[in-house]
Write a structure and sequence with these properties.
It is a single chain. With about 575 residues, the protein is mostly helical. The chain has helices at about 1-20, 25-35, 40-50, 55-70, 70-85, 90-100, 105-120, 125-135, 155-170, 175-185, 190-205, 210-220, 225-235, 240-260, 265-280, 285-300, 300-310, 320-330, 335-350, 355-370, 370-385, 390-400, 405-420, 425-450, 455-470, 480-490, 505-515, 525-545, 545-560, 565-570. Helix 2 (about 25-35) packs antiparallel against helix 3, helix 5 (about 70-85) runs antiparallel to helix 6 (about 90-100) and helix 8 (about 125-135) packs antiparallel against helix 9. The longest helix has 24 residues, at about 425-450.
């Protein structure tokens, strides 16, 4: 692929030119982490843990690099080695707590964090900083918080609490202030976030990370001009500060969605900025994985599938690449390859790493391959993990409807129609029709099995949904009117001597609508008209006692379907005596 080859060339150049000057100091390793040059940082820290094996800090930052790259087991190994060097290493306890937090083991995380804080010196803000940053790491399989933030409110609050303690321990630690701003920003507390970013820049005007974080804050407010200005300010401080380009690319995408008139230009800028981001990081699998994340946000599924497929050929690839292939292949209608890839991801990944969206796409792939029942099971699993994704009910309902599992379909359409902004009138209609068909199925069983009693509440639900559709339509629809008539017909007492006329206005309207169309009715319409004339004939016969009108209706029914059992019965019994 041309794009990736160009990026590869840039990355290899960076690696070869940089390898001779890799400074074996912790400060340089930390700078590489901040620049998101994780491969470079990992190489440096592996060297430091070998040459300075008595320094527990080296092991912590090696573990932290692994956490940032989603290598949880390697991270825990590094933290434990750090504790073996120094059993009272506050930072390595923080690291173990961070790993536990990611795995949603809150008890262990809190215990490790508390022990780490107790071991920190009075003026040592670093353990507080990394506990706060740990809370801001996304946990596996979690739903998102406000504005798509991967930080849940409880975690953000915990981060704010511990970072404020770090601020008290060392009020001049600008990194603590940036992290505190990030915690507030994740929960849309813009004023608090801005105040901390501003304070950080007053303490350290050369802290590019503070400008980038402030730029993201402006992005959240859709103040894209000020956002862009902050990224430019960060790059003025450090032209090679890669995260500025990454966030600039993300801002371009949001800008494109917000302003359709600039969409094409901003998407192009986003791609260019992301290329610059990758060129400034080391061309590692992790860099490419971050590029894949970007392509998901950009909805460039064609490129994503190519990039992810290339990554899967590497022996060192992250298993997560099969998630990307699965998602992209579905969007590209390459369902078989998508199912193969996503099955591998779901079967082989640690269950804690799986997201609701994994099951969502798995369900969609199965349904696309006509395995509807299995697909619905996966969609239900996605919903169980994230109940806020109500739009999934629409896909579940559609599949159940096509499988003719009408009662379940009605229930799914009911939730979808009530809670999703994506619901259309057709979804409301199918809700009503599904409940109607569910009742019909029970009614048919009851004819031969007297122990079966049809659930009349299904008709109430059907009536409610269809009535809603009729109110919203600009003009009456004959098919919907007929279904509504049938629903009301089934609400009538089984003994026609007690007929109430519930369906009468609907059948009358249906006849008017069909008559107004003109022409010769097709077989289905003839059958529907017969139902209407038979009902109205019975109403005239039993309720109005108007035998002449009844005969007229039954004659109309006979003209359409002379062998209909109800018509035949009328002329054999009631009709003969009148």
């Amino acid at each position: 692929m041309k794009l990736m080859n160009k990026i590869a060339g840039a990355g290899l150049c960076l690696l070869f030119t940089g390898s001779s000057v890799f400074a074996q100091s912790l400060a340089d390793a930390k700078k590489a982490i901040d620049d998101e040059q994780y491969q470079k940082a990992e190489t440096m820290l592996k060297s430091l843990t070998a040459t300075q094996a008595d320094k527990d800090e080296n092991f912590f930052f090696l573990g932290w690099v692994y956490l940032k790259q989603d290598y949880l087991d390697s991270a825990k190994t590094a933290f434990n080695k750090g504790l073996a060097v120094n059993s009272k290493s506050a930072l390595n306890l923080v690291g173990l707590g961070a790993a536990a937090h990611i795995e949603k083991d809150n008890t262990t995380a809190i215990n490790d964090f508390s022990m780490a804080i107790s071991l920190a010196g009075r003026r040592n803000s670093t353990p507080f900083l990394y506990v706060g940053l740990s809370y801001l790491l996304p946990v596996t399989g979690s739903v998102v918080g406000p504005k798509g933030s991967a930080v849940l409110p409880a975690d953000a609050n915990a981060a704010v609490g511990v970072l404020n303690k770090g601020k008290a321990a060392n009020p001049r630690d600008a990194e603590v202030l940036v992290a505190l701003g990030d915690a507030w920003r994740s929960q849309l507390r813009s004023d608090s976030a801005y105040a901390n970013y501003s304070s950080a820049l007053l303490l350290d005007p050369k802290l590019a990370a503070a400008n980038v974080s402030e730029g993201v804050l402006w992005q959240y407010a859709e103040n894209f001009g000020d956002s862009e200005a902050q990224f430019k300010a960060a790059l003025a401080i450090d032209p090679n500060y890669a995260p500025a380009y990454r966030e600039w690319a993300e801002t371009d995408l949001r800008w494109a969605k917000s302003d359709p008139s600039q969409a094409d230009a901003k998407v192009k800028e986003a791609v260019d900025h992301y290329k610059q981001f990758i060129s400034l990081t080391d061309y590692s699998i992790e860099s490419q994985m971050r590029y894949a994340d970007f392509l998901i946000h950009a909805r460039d599924y064609v490129t994503l599938q190519k990039v992810a497929t290339d990554l899967s050929a590497s022996a060192k690839t992250n298993l997560r690449v099969y998630r990307y292939i699965g998602y992209a292949a579905y969007e590209n209608k390459d369902y078989t390859d998508g199912l193969t890839a996503l099955t591998k991801w779901i079967n082989e990944a640690d269950p804690k790493r799986l997201l609701p969206s994994d099951y969502f796409y798995m369900g969609r792939l199965e349904i696309a391959l006509k395995n509807d029942s299995l697909g619905v099971l996966y969609l239900r699993k996605a919903l169980a993990l994230d109940t806020t994704q109500v739009d999934i009910y629409g896909e579940i309902a559609k599949s159940l409807y096509e499988l003719k599992k009408y009662q379940e379909a009605g229930d799914a359409y009911h939730v979808f129609a009530a809670e999703s902004r994506q619901a259309k009138l057709l979804d409301h209609y199918r809700e009503g029709y599904s409940y109607y068909e569910a009742y019909i199925a029970q009614y048919r069983k009851s004819v031969n099995d007297k122990t079966v009693k049809p659930d009349s509440s299904l008709l109430v639900k059907a009536d409610s949904a269809v009535s809603y559709v009729e109110r919203k339509l600009p003009s009456p629809n004959d098919q919907i009117t007929y279904v509504h008539a049938q629903i009301k017909d089934f609400e009538e007492p089984s003994d026609r001597n007690n007929i109430k006329g519930l369906a009468k206005p609907y059948y009358e309207q249906y006849i008017q609508l069909i008559t107004a169309k003109g022409g010769t009715p097709d077989d289905d319409t003839k059958s529907n008209l017969t139902d209407a004339y038979v009902y109205l004939g019975n109403y005239a016969e039993y309720k109005d006692k108007d035998h002449a009108k009844a005969l007229d209706y039954f004659n109309k029914a006979k003209a359409l379907e002379p062998t209909d059992a109800r018509v035949t019965y009328y002329f054999q019994t009631a009709g003969k005596t009148k």
